[in-house]
């Protein structure tokens, strides 16, 4: 649907992976901006209007991410599953380090 | 799976919407960094190693985005479909403005 | 100094405003990542190692921002003073709205 | 000036390092968004209106970065000079690798 959306509007020339990575980054910045002055606790109790703004920004991030995967012919779900499998090995359950550790990149 | 992954490692207390929005933003920054010195054309012709690094960063963005949707109980696919419907109206096909216009936020 | 640093290494062709904006964004993402799992309170009491990592990422953001200003021939200090003047008018001191309001973009 | 600006508006409680890092990231995202559909060449030839929007976003990034340095009591210029010195050693002038290498994080 996103491919068709772009094609119908003749936006394909703009949708290079580089440009789409910038767009993902821009939308992620807007998502962060929505919650920048909230406490972590407040971010758990958003009112309806804030929730909708947040959902909207999340949708924008997903759009550009999926469109980027399409342009690059990357299977995003497979990539996510593969990364999860590696993260399981990197952070073994029950290991003191994993338990104590805060998740790090 | 991501919910279970976090629970097993006792990372749930860190996964507030605010913190996850920062994580999405951090991973989106890493994704941008992968392509920052490429030309748009080069970003269309990544070699296998670069493609894998890019796919990896895209997976990280998706993980945190999906985990954030889970924590907020937001239906991410519904939000994306809803936003797409509004974008269709905002940028009508064939309108001179849409055709000429570069996509803007 | 940053101009010379880039010229000596023959990196000037890569330093377009677009690429430098991506680099600012990438480094800002790394800065966010440093504090993503901290509480706001903890971020006020960083230990020496964390402070150094944060200072390092802040330096990276500043480098690319200043380099971008140089390439665009934008007077960054003047731009910042100008924006501050406008923000003073936008958020008048003592107005109930400003006082109650959380800063928003 | 930024310290005073925040104090006058009673915004200090919101200006934790964590929140300010999110704000830097958010503004960096907006900066990226300004140039996301431009080619690198076009970003070198911005018209007056685009230049002003870009300068404005750069000012926002600088504001939050300087405010963050103030709150953390980090000497941002010293940090930038220190990082530049390390980057000089990391990328020696005239080394084939540096010359060929595209700058990487």
Question: If you had to describe this structure to a student in words, what would you say it looks like?
Answer:
Four copies of one chain form a homotetramer. The radius of gyration of chain A is 18 Å and the shape is flat. The first copy, chain A, has 105 residues and is an all-alpha fold. Helix content of chain A is 70%, strand content 0%. In chain A, helix 2 packs antiparallel against helix 4. Chain A has helices spanning 2-8, 17-34, 40-43, 48-72, 76-90, 96-100. At the A-B interface, helix 1, helix 2, helix 3, helix 4 and helix 5 of A face helix 1, helix 2, helix 3, helix 4 and helix 5 of B.
Strand content of chain A: under 5%
| Largest interface by Cβ-Cβ < 8 Å | A-B, 65 and 65 residues
What spatial form of chain A do the alpha-carbon principal axes imply?
A: flat
Structural class of chain A: mainly alpha
State the major sheet of chain A: none
Give the N-terminus to C-terminus distance of chain A in angstroms. Answer: 32 Å
For this structure, the quaternary state is homotetramer
Report Rg of chain A: 18 Å
Helix fraction of chain A?
Answer: over 70%
Poorly predicted sequence stretches spanning 5 or more consecutive residues of chain A: none
Overall mean pLDDT of chain A: 94
Query: H/E order of the elements of chain A?
Result: HHHHHH
SS element count, helices of chain A: 6
The overall strand count of chain A is 0
Keywords:
homotetramer; about 0% strand; about 100 residues; mainly alpha
